[in-house]
Amino acid sequence: MCNTNAKYHMKKLLCLLLFCLGMSGLKAENWIRVNQVGYLTGDVKVAVMLLQNKEKITHFTVTNTETGKSVKLKNIHNTGVQHPFAMTARLDFSGVKTPGTYFITVNDTQSPVFRIGNDVYAGMQEYPLRYMRQQRCGYNPFLKDSCHVHDGIIVLHPTRTGEKIDVTGGWHDASDYLQYVTTSANAVYQMMFAYINCPGIFEDHFDSSGNPGANNIPDILDEAKWGLDWLMKMNPDKDTYFNQIADDRDHRMAVLPMDDKVDYGWGAAMERPVYPCSGEPYGLMGNKNDSKGLASTLGKYASAFSLGADIFQNIYPEFSGELRVKAAEAYNKGAANPGACQTAPCTSPYYYEEDNWSDDMELAAAQLYKSTGEKKYLKEAVDYGRLEPVTPWMGADSAHHYQWYPFVNLGHYLLSVQSDEKVKKEFIRNMHLGLNRVAERGADNAFLNGIPFIWCSNNLTTAFITQAMLYRELTGDESFRETETAMRDWLFGVNPWGKCMIIGLPENGDYPKDPHSALTNLKGYRLDGGIVDGPVYTAIFNSLRGVHLRNEDKYAPFQSNTVVYHDDYSDYSTNEPTMDGTAATTFMLAKLASAAKNK
User: Fold this and answer.
1) Cβ atoms 308, 368 nearer than 8 A
2) pLDDT in tens, 382-424
3) How many angstroms separate the CA atoms of 151 and 1, rounded?
4) Burial level of 291, CB count in 10 A (0-12/13-18/19+)?
5) Its pTM surpasses 0.90
6) d(CA 434, CA 424)
7) Are 354 and 255 in contact (CB under 8 A)?
């Protein structure tokens, strides 16, 4: 018995040693990238080999750490030179399906240890909500304190400039403390969409304030309602829609939110500016956006309100009724004011450069049709959807910051599941076309990554995964299964840097330890569940104001002349978590976690 235990502990020690070698293999000449969370039993399972020389690969072995048994495989797809690597290859071990813990060996190179099993993503659907609670404005349950309680004073309004208005609440957009309807309404919709499409998977451990303690409402709905409450404040009546709180003057200091002392003209730590939705270019201090309408923002209001009305009708009936009225009002005003409504710059020229809007109105109309059954909404959703059959970033090489947003068009999905067969086929075809453009763009590289490396590329990656999952479930078509899985694996370590892009996942993984956040920088708080912006084109990194590295780049061997990523506080372009990007991961993680529930 003692001898058996000794062998067991020696095996565990070997497993840990191999993991450490794989994770810290920066001195090695070659690396094997694996999904550090793990693989479902039925997955397409592919590791990526990165070589600094042109060493020939003829086979690889997959070893079960528990049994010690190895299988020798030759399913290798050489993908050639990919800067800065002299050679790359895809190692397919899809045939390994037995649950367990494994590592891969190619000649003298070993991968990190990883798991196979349908439970590897169990519980991870709750992780994004940890970050969302950390991002709450007003009362913050993570910090057990309140911030920005004086919001705010209306600016740039034709009749109400200088007026005080209560718009406390909502979420901070990222590691700064600005707040936008554009991203917040999308975050609300994404979380509710995940909830209705992954029934029974979400748990209840927190109350509506975000404090520990169940309240018989899934935590994801508590979080969605927190956002809806704020959106209602930002839409106080049928003629008034606000777009943004604060501006880039926020960036003058990096402090915890309750210590924010920025003076916007009404005293330090007092009111912040509240910007209205504008159909014309506007901004303070010389910089202006390029707004041309209201429909992009009002469409987002309408879709969030409409779905919220459906979800909360049996939980908060009066609240649901108010949402239903506001949804129709926002939609009608958006329809009367086509065009994109952009966020407001101030001291710098940066803002969310959204210039599409028909996708927002499509989703709003499709959601209203689903909620009300009124045929006019279906017709209008189809008309809006035909203005933009494919989200323009899909297949593109580049884009402006948030130029085509949201990054996934869930309106296409809603039109693909209603009863009109002709419309259904048309919009399934549109979903296929977008996926195909991305897949074709990435077909020749080792990671199958056809995502343009613009600012927030990880959000685009999540959007692709969401659309691919929905398309596959709708049609049973497995054409994009390998690309879908490759993009999921990219987020969990199968990328040049071997970096997991969601903080805290997996617990023993190589995820961002030095994100661009005052909470981490000043207090060492871990931003569990937050997805960082992700890799950007080297040209973007070199062009942004204030971006630099404060520490030695430990990923220097993996940086290329095309794309970079840095786990460094001072690189806000690649290593800053975003609220809307995090909310958008709830669907993906819930679907993956469902494999454990349904096994």
Assistant:
1) no
2) 999 999 999 999 999 999 999 999 999 999 999 999 999 999 9
3) 67
4) buried
5) yes
6) 16
7) no
